Amino acid sequence: MHGLAELIPDTAVAARRRKPSPALLALLKGAFADRCSTAAAVLLQHGTDESHYAPQAPDAVVFAHSAEEVAFLVKACLAEAVPVIAFGAGSSVEGHLLAVEGGVCVDLSQMNAVVALHLDDLSATVQAGVTRNQLNAALSHSGFFFSVDPGADASIGGMAATAASGTNSVRYGTMRDNILGLTVVTAEGEIIRTSSRARKSSAGYNLTQLYCGSEGTLGIITEVTVRLHPQPEKVAAAVVNFPTLANAVNCVIQALQLGVPLARAEMLDALTIRAINAHSHTKLREAPTLFLEFAGSVGQVEEQSEVVRGIATEQDGGDFQWATLLEDRTRLWTPRHHAYFAALQLKPGCRSFTTDACVPLSALAECITETLADLERVGLPAPVFGHVGDGNFHCLILVDPNIPQEVQDAEALSERLIHRAIRYAGTCSGEHGVGLHKIGYLAAEHGDATVEVMRRLKKALDPKNILNPGKVVPL
Amino acid sequence: MHGLAELIPDTAVAARRRKPSPALLALLKGAFADRCSTAAAVLLQHGTDESHYAPQAPDAVVFAHSAEEVAFLVKACLAEAVPVIAFGAGSSVEGHLLAVEGGVCVDLSQMNAVVALHLDDLSATVQAGVTRNQLNAALSHSGFFFSVDPGADASIGGMAATAASGTNSVRYGTMRDNILGLTVVTAEGEIIRTSSRARKSSAGYNLTQLYCGSEGTLGIITEVTVRLHPQPEKVAAAVVNFPTLANAVNCVIQALQLGVPLARAEMLDALTIRAINAHSHTKLREAPTLFLEFAGSVGQVEEQSEVVRGIATEQDGGDFQWATLLEDRTRLWTPRHHAYFAALQLKPGCRSFTTDACVPLSALAECITETLADLERVGLPAPVFGHVGDGNFHCLILVDPNIPQEVQDAEALSERLIHRAIRYAGTCSGEHGVGLHKIGYLAAEHGDATVEVMRRLKKALDPKNILNPGKVVPL
């Protein structure tokens, strides 16, 4: 845990700090009553995320209940050019939430109404604070589900804001592919809808995709209309070991090239399996492993798994261990979902320095292999796992935050990995976003002229730089 | 055909006209030699599209060969604030190409190199002028294909610029879902790449999707990296009649709700079938009809068609007529692809006033039924067909351009349909874009505040309004 002492800003931060005036705080307290807090513990919680950064607390937290309330708050803060930082479930990992210039955090977690289930249209509309598990619970007997699964029970607004993806994007797509429209509060406190509920549209600039992934820096997402997918008749999960991670990766790529619609294809290295075994009391073999999921009709699942079994054999894969009943599949996937927390327990007191490279499929095995060699040289423990079908993998570099050398080594490893991914025509961020941590790499990935376009967009939509300042784009 | 007389601008247009100076024309002629043309026939061709508008010619046409040449051209025109209009295959239908303020048309059709086939990554990079058929020819023995099929053999750059879709988006997605990245020339003549070649990314604002669908008003797309899909083992096409269009629509929607991955699902009304029979010498029954396509393994295709046959029977559908061999499928689908030209021949000398409404699936049958009644009242011939799985349908309202009443009636029908679609939470444009024709409807669909955001984006990225002025956003 972090002490309150860490909240004391250093002088550099203090110089940039844009605190709300006593009058603004009084206005907010008057409007929101006990839903406006300046209690130290509340501030600390809202300045903390799952990144390796030390917390940076805002000056106030407001728990909003509607887009209108968010709009009121933004207008009030705009008058003083005070920052407004949107907060969902606090599960982001790149420093997105840190109040680097102070300001007011608007917590959307109480905006948790499922507004409408449009089952005939295969869509649902939810307030931004609804979590993915909450939406799926609301859909439990409908025959449909919401597909995007980043692991954490993130809020759907937050998932939209970071363009999240996760374990089953290989089949069903990322948040980008699963959002039909957004309600957004602009930097002027206007409430806009970005799109109709039609399944496709060419009616003007794609604001839905502009706000999706903008991390609260261009507008604050208050409502999301998402696609739903029909529940498949049958789902089967399988675990299979390989001699090397490259074999595991190649197995998945070949399956995709043959058109097998894998529902999930997660790669885990031996160290991740060891962490999972210790944390979840499982007895998985500590070897490079694929967790696979097949979904469809009974016949399709059989056919798909037959094809993949053949490919796995060619890649020297071991036997498939199967789980078809829901409880067995849950028993299998729950440890995978807890991999992050399991990894943290490998090294007591550590924080994870989590990488997020994503490369074209043909470069994935090589990029991972080089990265493993680099990790080995440096000697920090780092479980590696990834969403193979997307070309995306994470190294959880475990560092003791009190040992500066470890933090430096992890940062250097991360930086080498980013430049390696870019050399392979890949990206510094597959799904975690930019936040604070990746700002410095955007120019290396995209070029200065592209970053300049992003900067212009930010200036056009948020001229006073009040929306989550200091994130995504270097101004 | 249009006479050259129509090229003479009326005074309103003339007042807005921003002609290149003699010095600029001399510069372009010097740089591009015979690839810079001011011949009347060339100007006319480049001011003509497939819309119901009379042509409006640019002042010069330049045939570019590279992004660098486009950048040079843009910089030259920027110096005089002269408009630059990008031209691909000329197949757009909403007036996108008309030089309403004059200027220089940059024809990209000679930028037709397939730059790279990254088969292991399931992607390909092409210059903007490559057409979809050309790319698929380059892929013919690869086991992969490019999926987006808007009917016309459009250029891939143009398809990206209008966010095109078409017959198989129900399975494989629209252009938005199939673009990994773009090379774009900005209004300042900078050449930027919007994205890496990774299959997903959260590294900054989504410029790929901002330029996709921006119709040349924010930047000029010079290169596109698209997704490829594995060729399915088997493809089967089927034709089935229904008593009403509503039955046909409901058949498709129920199949989607059951998770059947239809490869195509095209609805055609009896009049469209009549037009096709006359044009392509087919003998299809003149009744509401579905053209369906199933794709996958042999077993999957059998299973899918079995399910859909059951649903069709419940909707009083007739027998399925099947085509599984490639030549038979081509014989079936070619007339569908020619439906637009077949429809034009129903009324000699006519032009088509083509609507493009798209609504949530649950509203589709009702929206079509009300529209058919409206068409019947007005009495203009109007074949109706659509991409049912997307909720998108087109009425080809056939008007004699020399009879003002017919043009007015068609415009009024179109306007009522747009407001009907918006009432059903749909969009004025499913896939054809805004161009000139839909500008006036954006506020009705999105609200003024949303349109204001679009306007700010335009002003931020093209402050001198040189990129395809007068399109998409009302300034």
Write structural notes for this entry:
- Two copies of one chain form a homodimer.
- The first copy, chain A, has 475 residues and is α+β, with helices and mostly antiparallel strands.
- Chain A has four domains: 4-107, 2-Layer Sandwich (Uridine Diphospho-n-acetylenolpyruvylglucosamine Reductase, domain 2), CATH 3.30.43; 114-230, Uridine Diphospho-n-acetylenolpyruvylglucosamine Reductase, domain 3; 234-341, Alpha-Beta Plaits (2-Layer Sandwich); 347-438, 2-Layer Sandwich (Alpha-Beta Plaits).
- Chain A contains 18 helices and 18 strands.
- In chain A, the strands form four sheets. In chain A, strands 15-12-14-13-17-18-16 form a seven-stranded antiparallel β-sheet, sandwiched between helices. A five-stranded antiparallel β-sheet of chain A has the order 5-6-10-8-9.
- Residues 1-11 of chain A have low confidence and may be disordered.
Describe what is shown at a glance.
Two copies of one chain form a homodimer. Chain A has 475 residues and is α+β, with helices and mostly antiparallel strands.
Helix-strand layout with pairing:
The structure is a homodimer of 475-residue chains.
Chain A lengths: L10 H6 L5 H11 L3 E2 L2 H7 L13 E4 L3 H14 L3 E4 L16 E4 L6 E5 L4 E5 L4 H7 L5 E2 L10 H7 L6 H4 L2 H4 E7 L5 E3 L13 H5 L8 E8 L1 E2 L3 E8 L3 H13 L6 E5 L1 H11 L8 E8 L1 H17 L6 E3 L2 H12 L1 H6 L6 E4 L6 H18 L5 E4 L4 E8 L4 H20 L18 H5 L1 H14 L14
Parallel strand pairs in A: 2-4, 3-4
Antiparallel strand pairs in A: 1-2, 5-6, 6-10, 7-11, 8-9, 8-10, 12-14, 12-15, 13-14, 13-17, 16-18, 17-18
Helix pairs in contact in A: 10-12, 10-15, 15-16
